[in-house]
Amino acid sequence: MMDYKTLLKELKAREFKPIYFLQGEEAYFIDEIAKELEQNVLEEHEKDFNQTIFYGKDATTDAILEAAKRYPMMAERQVIIVREAQHLKKHLDDFKDYLEKPLDSTILVFCYKYGKLDGRTEIAKLFAKTCLFNSPALKDYDVPNWVANHIQLKGFKIDQKTAVLISDYLGNNLQKIAGEVEKLALVVKPGESISPTIIQKHIGLSKDYNPFELQDALLKRDVLKANKIINYFAKNPKDNPDVFVIAILFGLFQKLMKIHFSKNKNNDSALAKEIKTHPFFIKQYKQALNFYSPKRLAYIISLLRNADQQAKGIGKETNPPGELLKQLVFQILH
Fold first, then answer.
1. What CA–CA distance (Å, rounded) separates 246 from 311?
2. pTM (2 decimals)?
3. pLDDT 10s digit of each residue in the chain, 334 long?
4. What is the pairing mode between strands 51-55 and 78-83?
């Protein structure tokens, strides 16, 4: 099974296969490969007659096969892309005969998102004879590395902390992150660094007042910094909703509790994988254990569960914006 970089390298070198079956939970890589095939196989003047897009929800296998068996018009190849191919799951066996003898002048692409074929089946083995690409979902702790690599491939520089800041703020939606990076590419010159200041200005994340910095303050028991951030959140409740911040803090203190009882305490790499975080954080997490005993963490996790219910309006009256977090942070630190 081919990996993303190798496949993309082949496509850019114009080394094409007659069938591409792109499957997996992470839609971003599937979309990028399909986009490369859609945009760069044919010249613009060839696309009108030789490029066809189907949608699995609406298309029939007969229509796709009929198109695949046609010969290109005034071009060396034709490209057929089947988007949302997961909707054809029950009918993929209809392609068996074609997969046995595909037309060399046709590039047939299946975009099968949010799942994958059983590799033991005959149809999966037939797709694997040409190109079966699997796109697994990235683990949360792998996203910062992906962010850093993606930005470097675009010709810019970024340090590890800033990559973590982006992934912490934008989550693991690679499509969303890539979109924000495209915006930054319009304002940053090639070779320059993407800094927290640039992120603050163009993505909208404050470099000093964000959940990432609040975690940092709590890990260090920096009361002044934590209160400054919480007061900023109170003045800008739409940017940092209580439920969002509480969820991040719950994940943080849950990780600290796991570290206390982990067998991998002396192996940072194994520990990072175990608690599903980026190795960048491990040293700081370990230092924070001096402030947070298991008993203290159990109390804090209980506070966070109660705060989460209040933030969602369960059981108690809704607090004024910011008050719930102020109370929560006070209780965590004192």
1. 9
2. 0.72
3. 678 889 999 999 999 999 999 999 999 999 999 999 999 999 999 999 999 999 999 999 999 999 999 999 999 999 999 999 999 999 999 999 999 999 999 999 999 999 999 999 999 999 999 999 999 888 878 888 899 988 988 889 998 888 888 887 777 889 888 888 888 888 888 888 888 788 877 776 677 788 888 999 999 999 999 999 999 988 888 878 888 899 989 999 999 999 999 999 889 989 998 998 888 889 999 999 999 999 999 999 999 999 999 888 876 556 676 789 999 999 999 9
4. parallel
Structure tokens at 133: 């690409």
CATH architecture, domain 140-202: Orthogonal Bundle (1.10)
Is the separation of the CB atoms in 291 and 300 below 8 Å?
Answer: no
Residue 38: both structure tokens together: 């859609």
Tokens 């609040």 -> residue = 214
Q: What is the DSSP letter of 137?
A: P
CATH architecture of the domain 211-333 equals Up-down Bundle (1.20)
Q: Where in the chain is the domain with CATH 1.20.272.10?
A: 211-333
Which two structure tokens, joined as six digits, stand for 29?
Answer: 């890589």
Domain with CATH 3.40.50.300 in the chain: 4-134
Could you tell me the CA-to-CA distances from 217 to 12, 175, 221, 278, 284 in Å, in that order? 46, 30, 6, 18, 11
Segments of the chain assigned to CATH 1.10.8.60: 140-202
Q: Which two tokens stand for residue 68?
A: 């695949």
Rounded-to-integer distance, Cα 170 and Cα 177, Å: 6
User: What is the C-alpha to C-alpha distance for residues 323 and 326, in angstroms, rounded to an integer?
Assistant: 5
3-state DSSP helix/strand/coil percent for the chain, to nearest 5?
55, 10, 35
Superfamily of domain 4-134: P-loop containing nucleotide triphosphate hydrolases (3.40.50.300)
